[in-house]
Specification:
about 280 residues; alpha+beta; nine-stranded antiparallel sheet; five-stranded antiparallel sheet; 16 strands; globular
Length: about 280
C-alpha cells in the first residue's frame, strides 16, 4: 500500500528546496575607532552585519630587513582607523632597533598614513576565524589619493600563514599557499575606488567593488596596495594610497537557519516513514 506524507510536511520541504542553501551576505564596516592589540598595535577586530561574525584585521609591511626591494620581509605595522577606513603606518615611521631604514621617510603623514606602495608595500590580513570559510565578494575603498589599485589574495594552502616567526616576502606568497581570485589570473584590481571621490571620508561617496569572480572561499584574505612583487599585470606605475572602508561576503561552511530547519524536517520525515512502515 502506498504511504502518503502529510501535506504540510510536503509543502515545507518543497519550500526548503528553494531557500535551504541560501546564505546571507555579511558586511564589515572598517571605519571609525576600535580597540587594538598585537605587536606594534597591528590588530583590530570588527563585527559584521547579516550572518554576523567577527573578522580580525592586521597590518603588515615589508620593513623587516633593510632591503626596499621585492625580497624585503614582512613584519607588523600599525593598523590605523579613520572615518575613511583602515590605513597602515609601517615601522619606518619609528626609530627602534631593527626598524630603521630608508623606506618611507614621511610614513605616518598623509598620504602615507593610508595603505600605500610608496617604497614599502602595505597590506591588511583578514582572518575570519578558526573553522570559518569566507567567500569574499566585495571591498570598498574609502579615502584615497593619487591612484587606488589593489591586490587581493586568498589563502588556500595548509595550516595558517605565518608572517611573524618566519621570513616571508611578497614575492614568495604565490608559492606559499596564496591564490589569486580572478578568472583572468591576475591578483590586481585597477582603480578599486570604483568612482569614489578622491580625498573624501564621507561614506556616501564610497563605491563598493566586486571581487573574486572565481568564488573562492578561505579563512584568510590579504588585501594590499598593488605590488609588482606579486603581480605586475595592469600596474600603471602610479603610486596608490587607499583606506579600506568595508569588506563583504558569504560564509560557505556555516549552517544557516533554513539549513538547520531542513535538517530538523529531514529527521521528522525519516521518523514519519519509519512509523508508517511499522504500522
Amino acid at each position: 500500500m502506498m504511504t502518503k506524507m502529510p501535506r504540510p510536511l510536503i509543502l515545507m520541504l518543497a519550500a526548503l528546496c528553494c531557500c535551504g542553501s541560501a546564505q546571507a551576505v555579511t558586511n564589515w564596516s572598517l571605519t571609525g575607532s576600535s580597540s587594538f592589540t598585537g605587536v606594534y598595535n597591528n590588530t583590530r577586530s570588527f563585527t559584521g552585519t547579516g550572518d554576523g561574525g567577527t573578522v580580525t584585521a592586521s597590518a603588515w609591511s615589508n620593513t623587516k630587513n633593510s632591503a626596499t626591494s621585492n625580497s624585503a620581509y614582512l613584519e607588523s605595522a600599525y593598523l590605523a582607523t579613520y572615518g575613511g577606513g583602515l590605513g597602515v603606518r609601517n615601522q619606518d615611521s619609528i626609530n627602534t632597533s631593527g626598524s630603521v631604514g630608508t623606506g618611507d621617510s614621511t610614513e605616518g603623514a598623509a598620504p602615507n598614513h593610508s595603505m600605500d606602495n610608496e617604497n614599502r608595500k602595505d597590506s591588511i590580513l583578514f582572518d575570519f576565524g578558526v573553522g570559518k570559510s569566507m567567500q569574499l565578494n566585495s571591498l570598498t575603498v574609502g579615502w584615497w589619493s593619487g591612484d587606488s589599485d589593489v591586490f587581493v589574495l586568498a589563502y588556500t594552502g595548509t595550516g595558517v600563514p605565518n608572517f611573524t616567526s618566519t621570513n616571508v616576502a611578497y614575492n614568495s606568497l604565490l608559492t606559499s599557499g596564496w591564490s589569486v581570485v580572478r578568472s583572468s589570473g591576475s591578483a590586481n584590481y585597477s582603480n578599486a575606488a570604483n568612482g569614489g571621490v578622491a580625498g573624501s571620508s564621507t561614506a556616501s561617496t564610497f563605491k563598493s567593488l566586486s571581487i573574486n569572480d572565481l568564488n573562492i572561499s578561505a579563512r584568510f584574505w590579504l588585501i594590499g596596495a598593488v605590488n609588482t612583487a606579486i603581480d605586475s599585470r595592469g600596474v600603471d606605475g602610479n603610486l596608490d594610497y587607499v583606506k579600506l572602508a568595508a569588506v563583504g561576503g558569504q560564509y560557505t561552511n556555516k549552517v544557516s537557519e533554513p539549513g538547520t530547519l531542513a535538517l530538523t524536517l529531514g529527521a521528522l520525515a525519516g521518523g514519519f516513514w519509519l512509523r508508517r512502515r511499522k504500522v
